[in-house]
Input
Amino acid sequence: MDKASFKSLLVELRIGIAVCDNQGKIIFRNDVWCTLPEIIKQFAETKLLELKPGKFIYSQTKNLISIVTLADTLIAIIHREDEQLVVKDSILSLLINSMAEHKNIFDAAAKAMGKHLSWRWVLVNRYLTNHKAETLAFWDNNGLVKNFEYDLLNTPCDRVRKETQFVRIDDVLQDYPGDEFLMEMGVKTYAGYVYRNKENKVLGHVFLMHDNNNVDWVLTEETLHMVSTIVGATLSLSHSEKEVKKQKGLAHTDALTQLNNRLAFDSDLKARVNAAEDSSEDQFVLAMIDLDGMKQVNDNLGHSEGDRLLQSYAKELKHIGREKDRAYRFGGDEFAIIFVNTHSNQISKLKHRFEQTMLKVQQQGFDKVGASIGYASSEDFPGDVKALIKTADERMYANKQGKIKGN
Output
């Protein structure tokens, strides 16, 4: 984040904030900071001069001071020491750390609020049109789940879009009795707040849903304002559309290997199946892969070598096909590749390529490692995603069992 964008973000937040450089020199104070009692500011600035992150309590006034790092600066955040503001501080600290580490800000926002607020569902969306939106992050109870597009018409989200301010709905089913999606989920309460770019254009909103009415509305509104401000500022780093694409790309990438992840696979495979139904030229072959010997590498050489094996294999998979073919890591030692514009009669050639790939990996210190692979062609399962995956999986497992019996 450039300094101008970062400064504008700190100005917007409704909490006292000061920033110092790596020499302990104060380089910024927001307006809220300037209104605080001198004795509290002096205490906080003394802690900043120590150049050590942490949380401190000023006992005379019960203020909580958090010192967090971002790039080559330290940031002091002053709150009253009460439960609500400790929650807000925890969320803000997580988001600042995510920004510093260039993580997906949408996932970070949903995850931070999901963990520290009592709401069951936390979502960040963006508007595609006046009538359609897509979720950029979706937290459901204990984890992030798959994103989706949806229609705004006659939904609580449409009300947030139109009112462009904090929206609170105490009884969702009474206000939106025809919304089957919310009814099926059991949503009872809803809160939403728009986020804007630096030109003050509304891009989407952050919203919370819960399956009971036991929520803290004051904390909810203040936290939504804070998180929406940060999300909007992050999208203003460059052109917002470019940043959305970048953040969505992070959400579809496996962190260890930099291959596409399972979320990307599900989306791509569905699109490929649809294309194959429409044109004989768009047929493809799916290869499901499971590494043999991964456990032994972890047990005998350590998990760092196990990670190196995964990274080495992933690097070779990127070059096994053409640029338009896509490789994925599902997690653990499971991988997949979609070979586009490929027919079943070409599978024998693919097998040879995989053999050559594994030889390269074995030459990197993993001579006892192999790969079990199962293939399935879109020609054999037109329009059937589940059957395609199931067949490739079963053939991969049969390949693995054949090796075990052979030994």
